[in-house]
Amino acid sequence: MDQNELKAQVGAEAVKYVKDGMIVGLGTGSTVRYMVDALGKRVQEEGLHIVGVTTSTRTTKQAESLGITIKDIDDVDHIDLCIDGADQVDDDFNGIKGGGGALLWEKIVNNASVKKIWIVDQSKLCHRIGAFGVPVEVIPFGAQHVFNRFVKKGYKPQWRMTDDNKKYRTDENNYIIDLKVGEIADPHALAEDLIHTVGVVEHGLFLNRVDMVIVGRDNGPEVLQAK
Ligand SMILES: O=C(CO)[C@H](O)[C@H](O)COP(=O)(O)O
Predict the structure, then answer these.
(1) DSSP letter for each residue of 83-128
(2) Residue 59 CB–ligand 1 contact under 6 Å
(3) Which of 25, 45, 122, 166 sits most deeply, having the most CB atoms within 10 A of its CB?
(4) Going from the N-terminus, what domains does the chain have, and what CATH number goes with each?
């Protein structure tokens, strides 16, 4: 199976966990796109009643176009189930997210969710996270100083850029700096350091934040439960 088929496979598998009446957190990314398509199909064909809370304007647009009711996160008091993608997941279920630039809203929705599922193709699994750069969302004011600080710390920062060579802006109009740190020996220590850096809004280290990972494999989806 090619990567897109694996993404479609886990997207279809994940929506089986969505039950009538649920408030569902909808992640962002190319894998989630397949999941939202599959969810839209259930809404249209089975009359499934759900409310979605999205993690990006992209996902909002897609979900609404499929007839999924969307509410603002502050108009719900909890989210029953969040289904999101990830860029890397290690043996302890630590993940890196934010490849699609939505890490801030994704972490807020994750925080508000009772149950959390990630959907990934098999290429995303690793023993130690870090080969995928760690995205860090920073406010524009003083962002160059934050960047310089990361250089001094040896975090090998790179500005996230758009195709037309402008600094990428998130849904909150912030910048993203990707840290090319390589395999991370102590992700908790790095997370602590990043979140205490003035100017940093959030980072893409998602540690102890998922209950189940559905992995797309050639012989069918594999469901991994957090220990
Ligand atoms: O964190 C994310 C977006 O901010 C995505 O979930 C992550 O980048 C995975 O995306 P894809 O399914 O396209 O590989």
Answers:
(1) EE--SEE-TTS-EE--TTS-HHHHHHHHHTEEEEEEEEEGGGB-SS
(2) no
(3) 25
(4) 3-125+207-218 (3.40.50.1360), 134-203 (3.30.70.260)
- Measured in angstroms, how far is the CA atom of residue 86 from the centroid of ligand 1? 5
Distance 69 CA to ligand 1 centre (A): 22
Q: Which amino acid is at 216?
A: G
Q: What is the CA radius of gyration of the chain?
A: 17
Report the Cα 116 to chain-centroid distance in Å: 11
| Residues 57-104 pLDDT 10s | 999 999 999 999 999 999 999 999 999 999 999 999 999 999 999 999
Q: What are phi and psi of 98, to 5 degrees?
A: 115, 5
Q: Is 56 annotated as a binding residue?
A: no
Beta bridge partners of 109: none
Complex ipTM over 0.95: yes
